[in-house]
Specification:
Length: about 475
């Protein structure tokens, strides 16, 4: 459906040269013909009204009307009473051949891709309310570039929220609003590189595609450190000699384990002893089901931890809003890097998010999503128990993914390929490792964007492959 034009008339760059000796109408006709022939003006494109074009060029309206009438007679333009003048179909050059469309992938019964929340549950009505209210309330001064750290209103609200919900040592002065986790991580690594850091440790398995690329983009060397049932191996970390580590302590990606209390203490002791920094990805912290929530590491060592949070999982990735809790010693450097990068995250969206949190609508949405994801988690357990009882599930204490431990003899890639042929998208743990290691075979089953019925149908379709 064509979008209705809201203004009086579109703008169009044309010029007239009164000293050239060529008639003004001839100049106008020639320029419009050339614009259409060369494709500068495309089929069905709207032209300015004769009144507006005459005004902008300093010509009489009658001259412009005569020009339009001539080009209409030649087949370049079409004009209807009460409607805009537009470029006629087929008046311009033939359109370049369209590239062949990609082969249409078969529709999946269920796609257990991970890292994606339930997109259909995005609170559109609440977000629209927040955007309208933020635009209505915002002072004119907030339309300027503002503080690179972000809107003070959002930083204040986020600080209060994180103190209340995540036991963080959060102050607005040391919060930096960023455009999602990837930018936050990149800024943190750049700031640490300036301090002389050369190597960055990260969890293995983890997010090698994101973390390794970000580390290398900052000119640093990634160093994988193994993860076991208690979280990152701090002794192995100490042996690497690295002075920075990236961790997901609340719900380790992808194993789903929570960093054990003794490991938390050991990790912070390592940071103090090595004069090191911990970059904490507060991943999936909003969604816990079977255990009491744990606070952020940053709350125990605000001078040693950069904590990164976002609304990508709690609301939607498309919003591209996140924040860093910065150690005081790094706040100025991180702020300057953010200013250089983009001068700040869009203010209107920040103000809308602040209102969403402040009004209680954000908490209400999270409660609704916890119920939804808990139900999907139970559906996944039940489906596997019914159709693949030999498969063991772990990592379901929080978030919206689980790890399926396949019995011996089942190869990840073989199972994934066979499941795809049956219309089910499965994903292996080996892709989350720093080096290929298909054994033991495990699958990472995301259920955030998979309805309960699809979970049941998908597992039923591939149960014999998994077991």
């Amino acid at each position: 459906m064509r979008v209705q034009w809201a203004g009086l008339s579109p703008e169009l760059l044309l010029t007239v040269d009164r000293s050239s000796g060529e008639q003004l109408r001839a100049q106008l006709e020639r320029q419009l013909r050339d614009a259409i022939r060369t494709g500068r003006l495309r089929e069905d494109e709207r032209l300015p009204s004769s009144r507006e074009l005459a005004r902008s060029l300093g010509l009489s309206r009658g001259l412009v009307q005569d020009c339009y009438a001539q080009l209409q007679a030649e087949g370049y333009l079409v004009t209807r009473v009460g409607s805009a003048t537009r470029v006629a179909p087929c008046a311009g050059p033939p359109a370049p051949p369209e590239p062949a469309p990609p082969a249409e992938l078969p529709r999946l019964v269920a796609d257990f891709r991970h890292g994606v929340p339930d997109l259909a549950s995005f609170p559109r009505a609440d977000w629209l309310w927040a955007i309208r209210e933020a635009a209505r309330r915002m002072p004119t001064a907030d339309l300027d570039y503002g503080d690179p750290r972000g809107s003070l209103a959002l930083r204040t609200v986020v600080a209060g929220y994180l103190r209340r919900v995540r036991a963080a040592a959060a102050a607005p002065a040391h919060i930096l609003v960023c455009s999602g986790y990837a930018q936050g991580l990149g800024l943190a690594l750049q700031a640490l590189a300036r301090t002389g850091v050369r190597a960055v440790a990260h969890e293995d398995p983890g997010s090698p595609a994101t973390v390794t690329a970000s580390v290398r983009a900052a000119g640093l060397t990634p160093v994988p450190v193994p993860v076991d049932a208690h979280g990152i191996d701090v002794r192995a970390l100490d042996a690497t000699g690295a002075r920075v580590v990236i961790v997901t302590p609340a719900h380790q990606w992808p194993t789903g384990v929570v960093l054990a209390p003794e490991r938390r203490r050991a990790l912070l002791d390592w940071a103090r002893r090595r004069d090191a920094c911990v970059i904490e990805d507060d991943y999936d912290a909003e969604f816990r089901y079977d255990k009491e929530p744990v606070g952020v590491l940053q709350g125990l060592a605000a001078d040693r931890v950069i904590s990164i949070g976002t609304v990508s999982k709690s609301l939607a990735p498309a919003l591209r809003i996140g924040w860093l809790l910065c150690p005081p010693a790094l706040t100025a450097a991180l702020t300057e890097l953010k200013r250089i990068a983009d001068r700040g995250t869009p203010t209107l969206d920040q103000l809308a998010l602040a209102l969403l949190i402040e009004s209680g609508r954000y908490d209400r949405h999270l409660r609704r999503m916890r119920t939804l994801y808990a139900a999907r988690s139970k559906a996944l357990r039940a489906a596997l128990a019914a159709h693949a009882p030999a498969v063991r599930l772990t990592g379901l204490d929080a978030g919206f993914h689980a790890v399926a431990h396949l019995p011996g003899g089942a190869g990840e890639e073989t199972v994934i390929a066979a499941a795809r042929a049956r219309g089910v998208g499965l994903y292996g743990m080996s892709a989350c490792r720093a080096a290929p290691a298909p054994e033991p075979p495990r699958l990472v089953l995301g259920f955030g964007d998979v309805p309960e019925r699809a979970i049941t149908e998908g597992i039923a379709a591939v149960g014999d492959l998994l077991g």
